[in-house]
Design goal:
Blueprint (H helix, E strand, L loop, with lengths): L3 H20 L11 E12 L17 H10 L1 E3 L14 E9 L4 E6 L4 E7 L11 E4 L1 H10 L1 H17 L5 H16 L2
Antiparallel strand pairs: 1-3, 2-6, 3-4, 4-5, 5-6
Length: 188
């Protein structure tokens, strides 16, 4: 049986380990504690994949807090896990430059769905060979999409109005679907 002292030491060690993990970036090459500066270069932008039936890019704004949050939680994926032709994409992306204390710069393109593309540059802004990477950040998606609830509701409304205008859906059915979609987003 453990004595209270050894139990307390084990608990303290576990808490220290967990706090150390949360202070590090999910990709150990980019620890949040080494970030010198975050500059959002394009808070909202469109790509060729923009789908206004899902989300209008004008409703999406990337913030410095979003970038820091992503650095702490992003998980690396292969291209096939990122490829917009095979994986859902909003086509909306904010861009940021993250400067680290060692002079390296990480260029990030972040979608509100948590899809992230990066490239790393040295202090002279020359691309580091083989530094392009792709990430997913599910907590980022959950946080940003909750904030974009109104924008998603407007996109649903546009999509359903279009279906009604094309005669593919009755106005009553569109109202019911819109109510179900909104109720689903309002649940915790």
């Amino acid at each position: 049986m453990r004595t209270p002292t050894s139990w307390t030491c084990a608990l303290a060690a576990a808490l220290l380990f967990v706090s150390t993990l949360s202070a590090e970036a999910a990709d150990k090459r980019y620890p949040i504690s080494y970030v010198q500066k975050v500059e959002v270069t394009a808070p909202s932008g469109r790509t060729a994949w923009e789908n206004k039936d899902f989300l209008n890019c004008d409703d999406v704004v990337l913030t410095e807090e979003d970038v820091r949050y992503a650095l702490q939680r992003m998980r690396r994926v292969l291209w096939r896990g990122y490829d917009p032709e095979k994986v859902g994409s909003t086509g909306c992306e904010g861009d940021a430059l993250v400067t680290f204390k060692n002079g390296r710069v990480l260029a990030m393109g972040i979608e509100p769905t948590g899809r992230i593309a990066t490239a790393e540059y040295d202090a002279k802004m020359k691309v580091v060979a083989g530094s392009s990477s792709f990430y997913e950040c599910h907590p980022c998606r959950d946080l940003k999409m909750a904030l974009l609830k109104d924008a998603l509701n407007r996109a649903d409304e546009r999509r359903l109005k279009k279906l009604v205008a094309e005669g593919q859906l009755s106005a009553n059915e569109a109202e019911l679907r819109l109510k179900r979609l909104r109720d689903g987003r309002d649940k915790p």
